[in-house]
Prior knowledge:
mainly beta
Amino acid sequence: MNNFNTVSVQFESGDQPRYTYKTLEQYAPGDMAIIKTKSGFFKFVHVVEVHSTPQIKPGINYTWLVQKLDTTDYDRLVSLD
């Protein structure tokens, strides 16, 4: 599949390492996303950069972001408290 884009993500903000993932969805810096780890667990990440063209280095097996984290319902419920 060649119609994808890449984004850089961090597990936490600050000086944490950045990782590149493939995606078909539109992201913006600051978005939250879900990834699947090599051990099969799901984790939340922060999108820190969206690449205008895919940033793919030969020899690296890039994986896909699972999906964007939508907090709309959660934010609405918290606002009602």
